[in-house]
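Weekly structure sync, notes
Attendees: PL (lead), two postdocs, one rotation student
Agenda item 3: pending single-chain targets
PL asked that the sequence for the first pending target be pasted directly into the notes so everyone works from the same version. It is reproduced below exactly as submitted, 210 residues in total.
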Amino acid sequence: MIQDIRPEDIERESFRIIEEEFFARTGRHPVDFDAREFAILQRVIHATGDFSLTDSIRFHPQAIDRGLAAIRGGRNLYADVGMVAAGIGSKLQSAFCGRVLCRVGDAEVARRARETGRTRSETALEMASGDNVGIVAVGNAPTALLAAIDLVRQGTFAPDLIVGVPVGFVNAAESKELLVAAGIPAITVLGRRGGSPIAAAIVNALLKMA
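Predicted structure, written out during the meeting:
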């Protein structure tokens, strides 16, 4: 049956339904989770309609605290694609003075990528590494996530948090496994699933907490 509900109440009702159906869909209770982790998972489910992500989402123990510190400290967020940036919008800058950066479409990025034979995603990430980036949000390109991991390991990039949820069949699952193994403060979804809506949902949940 179609519900008669005011637009401003739709999200609240959606979150109520997620919590109500959570056990039936997953076999687990919301209280089984850290409250902040469940708040992020709930927003991810809201963005995707997929309760099964409960089994594959992973949180580094320091991830949420580090992400909140970056937001509250006014550090910038780097998004690997425009869809992630659009999903976050201006909320970061308006509330905390940080900016959402996405350079994959820049002409200079395209030029350097052609010269080096690397993808635009990894080239853009590397070029943004000196821009006071506190959070890296990767929803599309495994090459961007791999570049972020390499730069952190080299000591030339120091984001507080990596939200690494690239989607796809080539190196997506492998890049996320490498992220977890590296011990970098991160939030990820294991396997091939992921995407820009999930990356944006995780960041938006952190913004709401902050």
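Discussion points:
- The domain at 56-209 is CATH 3.40.50.10230 (Rossmann fold).
- The chain has a mean pLDDT of 93.
Action: rotation student to compare against the earlier draft before next sync.
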